[in-house]
Amino acid sequence: MSDLTVLPEVNRDEEGILAGIECFALDMDGTVYLGERWIDGAKEFLREIEDSGRSYVFLTNNSSKNSQVYVEKLSRMGLVVSKDKIVTSGQATIYYLKKSFPGKRVFLLGNDMLTAEFKEEGIVLVDENPEVVVTAFDTTLTYEKLCKVCDFVREGLPYIATHPDYNCPTETGFIPDVGAVHAFIHASALRYPDRIIGKPNADMMDYLIERTGADRGKTAMVGDRLYTDIAAGRNNGLWSILVLSGEATMKDVEESEVKPHLIFDSIKEIMRYL
């Protein structure tokens, strides 16, 4: 793929990349909304995608929420979508476990919503004598849980993580995400996860392609983070589009080894090229 980068002040898709995109994989917070507020033009962009005969899905690393939570949130914000439009790192982890550890007993460090999703998909969850350890963004984390997961990791069990993020953005700033928990576990049990599923890693993007049936060369990953969203596209055969409506700045782009194919101020600016 091309190394083209389009700066926001130029804002031109000089190689006609967007004309060939059939599926947009969209990060959520910082890309289409901030908290419960749409980023300007986001809803119109989603409508334009579908009006032009293309498709989109929302792709998130956040494993503290299941797909129904996102469906309900988007509905409150005036967008009615089905759960098929939501792809999470939790779902991708379930997919990976079914392929790689079928029927194995799993200790899950996760909240009630993720636990329910794992059980609904037939994953065998246990608190004692697991065969696999899975760590997720557990918003109900306790010291007792931390002690238990460190014990299991220290035993040498296969150790899988839903995603790598150190912090989760909120309307009031950042809160510790699962990557920070991995640092705690490493300090105690001297191990990092054997495999991390979420963006920017291949397992997440393989699951995306499996779910959507899309052609990698006609799929664009759109997001506001260089090290997850843009790296996910760059490293896995998709086009990558950075929007400057969230975390990353042009200074970050200049300093990063990961370069997007295209850069826009926001997804509103992409519409003219569809």
Automatic annotation (TrEMBL):
Enzyme class name: hydrolase
InterPro entries (UniProt xref): HAD-like_sf, HAD-SF_hydro_IIA, HAD_sf
UniProt keyword terms in alphabetical order: Hydrolase, Magnesium, Metal-binding
SUPFAM superfamilies, per database record: HAD-like (SSF56784)
Pfam families linked to this entry: Hydrolase_6, Hydrolase_like
This enzyme's EC code(s): 3.1.3.-
Gene Ontology molecular function: any one: hydrolase activity
Cofactor: Mg(2+)
NCBIfam families registered for this protein in UniProt: HAD-SF-IIA
Record family assignment: Belongs to the HAD-like hydrolase superfamily. NagD family.
Function: Catalyzes the dephosphorylation of 2-6 carbon acid sugars in vitro.
Listed name of the protein: Acid sugar phosphatase
Classification of source organism: Bacteria, Bacillati, Bacillota, Clostridia, Lachnospirales
